[in-house]
Amino acid sequence: MQQDKSASVLGTLVGDAENLRENLLAYFNAFSDNLRDIFTKYKIEDRVEELEDSNLLLLVLQRFAGVDLHPARQDHARHLDWRTGPATRTGRWSEDGHAMTVLIAGCGDLGTEVGLRLAARGERVIGWRRSPGRIPEGIEGRAADLTQPLPPIPQDTDVVVIATAAGDRSEAAYRSAYVDATRNVLDALERDGVTPRRILFVSSTAVYGDADGGWVTEQTPAESAAPTARLIREAEEVLLGRTDRGTVLRLSGIYGPGRTRLIDQVTGGSAVLPSEPQWTNRIHRDDAAAAIVHLVLDVHAPAPIYLGSDELPVDLGEVLQFLAAELDLPEPPRGVTSSSRGGARRVDSGLLRSTGFAFSYPTYREGYRAVLAGTGVRHP
After folding, report:
1. Are the beta carbons of 39 and 31 closer than 8 angstroms?
2. What are phi and psi for residue 73, nearest 5 degrees?
3. Is 192 exposed, middle or buried (0-12, 13-18, 19+ CB in 10 A)?
4. How would residue 44 be classed by pLDDT, with cut points 50, 70 and 90?
5. Cys-Cys with 271: which of 33, 241, 265, 351 at CB 3.0–4.6 Å?
6. How many whole angstroms separate alpha carbon 324 and alpha carbon 331?
7. Do residues 25 and 48 touch, judged by C-beta distance below 8 A?
8. Do 12 and 66 contact (CB within 8 A), yes or no?
């Protein structure tokens, strides 16, 4: 009976996300003394604490809640795939039946979040960055400058995620961080004779430029005139031109823990409501990470390009008004603004959602409420 009840109970726990840790531990304490001795031996409470500190506890329990554990409805293959939830997922195991090795080339905030989520699913994750001491437990940190000779790549590497960022907005910085780094990672794979199943490059919707407020999709020509955007597009072409295993994920503006530019403008009194509509597109850091994990593990034959942006392009003024109301502050004044961040376009992420991906924060409202509540951490 306990196996029948487990998924149902976990589903109930997931429904009360704010009290998840306390309710889960209370659930464990309701088991028999013998089972609680096993929990103690394997330090289950410590594991729960670690998952909560990494903002991964909800994600892991959601996976378990989706599995029917009754023996009559489980076969051997599904037991092997327990980390991924329902057996409809594909690409979870390497050919020899072991967990996959994933290389994250660029473990900043986003890359680290991706790595932690992959590790929570049982993958071996190797993270490259200049300062590997900042990479958290669960990811094997390696010192690497993506524009210099790179460390050896394990032969069993199945997935590579290239998640770089420019140090400043100069053309030189963008060429180094995107074009040169992408080419260098591909050269290192060839040097070591490694052929991953999937190589995902984290790109930007900035490649589209101004669309006069119109919708952009994967089929829209990426013809931004901005020099930095053209360099990101060049990096995409480097990847897609050298391998048929490449996937490009173009993300809109990332916000989330520690990414509080608009909140700071409202609280600091510098926010201005644009006098004319100014379309903005965004994606929460956690949704960006989840989309990357989804595309490299859960989608059997991904398209070459996807757009990653939440479900509601919105006028900047509406977002600022919302934040002021949530913070119980006066509405910012209306006036002429010099910023055109985001371009005059609306990003359609329908192709990504058609693969089965669901946003945790489908609009700016849910996402910014989570940020204001202090949910999650920004990785250094």
Report:
1. yes
2. -115, 20
3. middle
4. confident
5. 265
6. 6
7. yes
8. no
Residue 315 neighbours by CB distance under 10 Å? 16
Locus of tokens 């290239």: 162
Domain boundaries along the sequence of the chain: 2-77, 101-372
Whole-angstrom Cα Rg for the chain: 22
- Number of alpha carbons in the 13 Å side-chain half-sphere of residue 149: 3
Which strands form 140-143's sheet, in the order they lie side by side?
Answer: 140-143, 124-129, 101-105, 157-162, 198-204, 246-251, 305-308
CA angle 236, 141, 119 (to 5 degrees): 80
- DSSP designation for 331: P
User: For residues 299 and 90, what is the distance between their CA atoms, to the nearest angstrom?
Assistant: 7
User: Long-range contact list for 286-289, CB < 8 A, 24+ apart?
Assistant: 286/55, 286/113, 286/256, 286/360, 286/361, 286/376, 287/359, 287/360, 287/361, 287/367, 288/110, 288/113, 288/251, 288/254, 289/110, 289/113, 289/114, 289/117
* Predicted pLDDT at 86: 33
SS3 string of 109-176?
Answer: HHHHHHHHHHHHCCCEEEEEECCHHHCCCCCEEEECCCCCCCCCCCCCEEEEEECCCCCCCCHHHHHH
Q: Which amino acid is at 316?
A: L
DSSP label of 85 = S
Tokens 């032969």 belong to residue: 155
Among candidates 257, 233, 279, 276, which has minimal Cα distance to 367? 257
- Retrieve residue 125's tokens: 């994750």
Longest dimension (CA), the chain: 68
Torsional sign, CA 78, 81, 84, 88? negative
The model's pTM: 0.76
Neighbour count for residue 368 (Cβ, 10 Å):
22
Q: Is the pLDDT of residue 339 over 70?
A: no
Q: Does domain 101-372 have CATH number 3.40.190.10?
A: no
- Please give the Cα distance from 336 to 141 (Å, whole number): 46
Averaged pLDDT, 148-161: 97
Residue (of 148, 157, 149, 150) closest to 126 by Cα position: 157
